[in-house]
Amino acid sequence: MTKHFDYIIIGAGSAGCILANKLSENLKNNVLLLEAGGSDQRFWIKTPLGYAFTYNDPKVNWRYNTEPDKNLYERTAYWPRGKVIGGSSSINAMAYFRGLENDFTDWENAGAKNWGWDNVLKTYQAIEKHVSKKEIVGDGPIQISDLSEHMHPFTKNFMSAAKELNWPTPKNTPIATEGLGYVHNTTKNGKRFSSADAFLHPIKNRKNLHIIKNATVEKIIIENLQAKGVIYKVNNIKKYADANKEIILSAGAIGSPQILQLSGVGPKEILKKSDVKLIHHSPEVGQGLQDHLAITKYFSTHERTLNAEIGNIFGKIIAGFKYIINKSGPLSIPVNQTSGFVRSETKSTVPDIQIYANPIAYSTDNSGKTYVDKKSGFLISAQPTRPTSRGSINIQSPDINIPPLINANSLDTKDDQLMAIKAGKIIQQISNTNVIKSVTTKAFDTNFINFNDNDLLNNFCEYASTVYHPCCTCRMGNSINDSVINHRLQIHGLKNIRVVDASSFPNITSGNINAPTMMLAYRASEMILEDNI
Ligand SMILES: Cc1cc2nc3c(=O)[nH]c(=O)nc-3n(C[C@H](O)[C@H](O)[C@H](O)COP(=O)(O)OP(=O)(O)OC[C@H]3O[C@@H](n4cnc5c(N)ncnc54)[C@H](O)[C@@H]3O)c2cc1C
Q1: Which of 9, 44, 85, 88 is the pocket-test mutation for ligand 1 (most atoms within 8 Å of CB)?
Q2: What pLDDT digit, counting tens, does each position of 269-299 carry?
Q3: Confidence (pTM)
Q4: 488: Cβ contacts below 8 Å, ≥ 6 apart
Q5: Which residue's alpha carbon is at the smallest distance from atom 12 of ligand 1?
Q6: How many A from CA of 292 to the centre of ligand 1?
Q7: Cα 394–241–243 angle (5° rounding)?
Q8: CB neighbours (10 Å) of residue 366?
């Protein structure tokens, strides 16, 4: 039986929850939101440090693996993605960074007209509410909490190291353009505050909004180059729904290009290999993938860090009690405690490295399992902000249940290889400050401090890992030859269909990309409503 809607949104992630809210605000719009995952009402989703448990939990996570990466010694990487209401905003590390002005100048230069800094800044200001102990700034739906008062005491060493290196130490990291500071987070009253918490849960009872969980979209039906409806499966039963206004793909940087290719929209040679009938040759669908890679170094210390609190069973029990009784203690604070942007060289025109310095030593294996060291330790991580290499997401089967091939194609450009070396040098600089030396018992990688450029590059290739920011796989641009969508996020050459999520970025932004994804979705909702009066 066909069900009829005005709008169908595919994916209830960071972007999809915002669209569902905004498009159903007018009660005359009949909106369907389809999400492959289930409910987000789970203890480890709501608990900030629960991140370690949802990181590889198949109940809430797609658990992708990349193809061997030729420039990373053929290593494959584990790529978590949220498969649950709230999408990746329900399993992410909650750090909130807007990105830097130059990121959006480059969006405009790539053809994303009206997406320059002045425009996106207005949207950020409209959707944000910054809450610190002293003040509340803004009254938008997204709460960003300044938890600096509650950060682990060990983090003062990182701030002293920044001062020793003459880096700024800004108070407001989401807004700051440079320097190391305490990370502000999408949390509220000691709990995760996902895009679903901000936008979907408050309005989920609207009569004109239909949310279907555990609904996997298999295909979009396109007739005469116009999107008509979607085929999806719930409990193994195939269903069809149509949309008389628009279908919006918000299935994320892997899901959106996968669904498009399965619907016959993509590079014709990729579709042919998987026996998918070509509907519209759009060569850039799935291409242009970008992600952040970071190199992380671990150190042991004679001072207490989070390891002393949660690295053993007694500590875990106490932390659990503190959290259950009044949402306080280590479980209430996300793992990334200090972070920010620095210049790899004084002559760099913009900050080009993001640092993370965390009062904990832990590691994850390739299946996504996390190991927390028993003894006190800390980590310092550096990530080039604006990689230039591009990879791809391509289907390998006509079946939605077979994951697409993820080719990260990391360090493919000379520029990215140079930045990898510079990232290593930044870690050498921090670990060589007097304050960090004074608290370090041992560097896990004893030789790192003496590595030359060649060693640093090899080390990056051997150990760097994803920071979980895939994007740009259905990017905005000028025409079908250089991109998938136009500056109003409509697919080139098709009617009634847009892509609105991290895939829509023309280029990756500096810093973590949840904030730019939500900003993009909010602006997109305004455009969709304007175009459908
Ligand atoms: C482990 C981890 C840590 C991260 N940490 C941070 C951080 O600290 N700060 C930050 O800013 N960013 C962080 N990110 C990145 C950020 O969360 C994501 O970039 C952002 O959430 C992407 O939003 P999206 O809307 O594009 O996709 P998603 O939020 O992933 O939403 C896509 C939704 O579509 C659904 N879907 C996919 N395919 C289908 C289908 N066929 N049918 C129906 N539904 C489908 C998915 O289940 C999902 O719910 C992190 C990400 C991860 C995974």
Answers
A1: 88
A2: 999 999 999 999 999 999 999 999 999 999 9
A3: 0.97
A4: 498, 527, 531
A5: 514
A6: 15
A7: 90
A8: 11
Q: Which atom of ligand 1 sits closest to the CA of residue 16? A: 25
The pLDDT tens digits of the residues spanning 56-71 come to 999 999 999 999 999 9
Between the CA of 438 and the centroid of ligand 1 the distance, in Å, is 39
> How far apart are the CA of 513 and the centre of ligand 1, in A?
10
92 lines ligand 1 (CB under 6 A): yes
Atom of ligand 1 nearest to the CA of 503: 26
Mean pLDDT (the chain) is 96
365 has a pLDDT exceeding 80: no
Quote the pLDDT of residue 123: 98
Q: How far apart are CA 518 and CA 501, in angstroms?
A: 8
Distance, in Å, from the CA atom of 108 to the CA atom of 510, rounded to the nearest integer, reads 15
Q: Is 267 in the pocket of ligand 1 (CB under 6 A)?
A: no
Catalytic (active-site) positions: 469
Section 456-461 average pLDDT: 98
pLDDT tier at 367 (50, 70, 90 boundaries)?
A: confident
Q: Can you state the angle between helices 414-431 and 453-463, rounded to 10 degrees?
A: 100
The minimum-distance atom of ligand 1 relative to the CA of 86 is 49
In 3-state terms, what secondary structure has residue 322?
Answer: helix
Instruction: Ligand 1 pocket test: pick from 192, 369, 468 the residue with the most ligand atoms within 8 Å of its Cβ.
Output: 468
Amino acid at 271: L
Q: Which CATH superfamily does the domain covering 2-37+196-290+471-531 fall into?
A: FAD/NAD(P)-binding domain (3.50.50.60)
Angstrom distance (rounded) from CA 358 to CA 174? 17
Amino acid identity, residue 305? Answer: T
Q: Is the predicted pLDDT of residue 235 greater than 70, yes or no?
A: yes
Show the tokens assigned to 225: 């180059």
